[in-house]
Specification:
With about 220 residues, this protein is α+β, with helices and mostly antiparallel strands. It contains nine helices and four strands. The chain is globular. Pathway: Amino-acid degradation; L-phenylalanine degradation; acetoacetate and fumarate from L-phenylalanine: step 5/6.
């Protein structure tokens, strides 16, 4: 367990930072929020924390941890008795990790600002349609995955690591930029609605962050 207060470097609408905020809330871990504006020029202070210039970064006893899944795994191991994020059953643990990876490694990376900026530079005006296509393709696979494991939540009837990854990807799909009709993914929508009733998920929502809409 860390000896000092954790510091989370975050951007209010970052999918990756969002899921880490949920994990911190569920684990009831106190932390300091430091905003990083991903849309601005390079932040020299943050580059020292994470040379890849990506959020989130979690400072633990002056040691920066990066990549959302790695951070969530750290929190699970550092605070094992506070709201376990992984089921005890090994099959359900694998299912939870697989669903999380489908979002974090399969769907979300191609929605990154840097990726979409490059697509737009190569083919002006193409980024929104391109992003929507891959969102739908990835969500279709994700819907099939959760159909095999879901109860109230993505894996059974308890919140797991998988669920922490769902709100942000549904939120992104519904944004006006992509305007994806998420009703074609009824299981994911049902899970997302259930998660939206949980206070720790509500508190992690982008609109509740101190830098919300300041750096839109």
């Amino acid at each position: 367990m860390p000896n000092s207060k954790l510091v989370l470097y975050s951007y209010w609408r970052s999918s990756c930072a969002w899921r880490v905020r949920i994990a911190l809330n569920l684990k009831n871990v106190e932390y300091e929020y430091r905003s990083v504006n991903l849309l601005s020029a390079e932040d020299n202070e943050f580059v020292k924390v994470n040379p890849t210039r990506k959020v989130p970064a979690l400072m633990v006893d002056d040691k920066p941890l990066t990549e959302s899944l790695a951070i969530m795994e750290y929190l699970e191991e550092a605070y094992p008795d506070r709201f376990p994020l992984l089921p005890k059953d090994p099959i359900q643990r694998a299912q939870s990790r697989a669903i999380a990876l489908q979002v974090t490694a399969g769907i979300q990376p191609i929605q990154n600002i840097r990726v979409l900026k490059y697509v737009g530079e190569q083919t002006p005006g193409a980024a929104p349609k391109w992003a929507a296509y891959w969102l739908i393709d990835g969500l279709r696979d994700l819907e099939d995955m959760v159909s095999r494991s879901a109860g109230v939540y993505a894996v059974g009837d308890k919140v797991t690591l998988a669920d922490l990854c769902i709100p942000s990807i549904i939120y992104n799909a519904k944004r006006y930029t992509w305007n994806v009709d998420v009703s074609q993914f009824p299981i994911l929508c049902k899970i997302n609605d259930a998660l939206a009733q949980i206070p720790e998920f509500q508190a992690a929502h982008p609109d509740k962050q101190p830098d919300a809409n300041l750096n839109a």
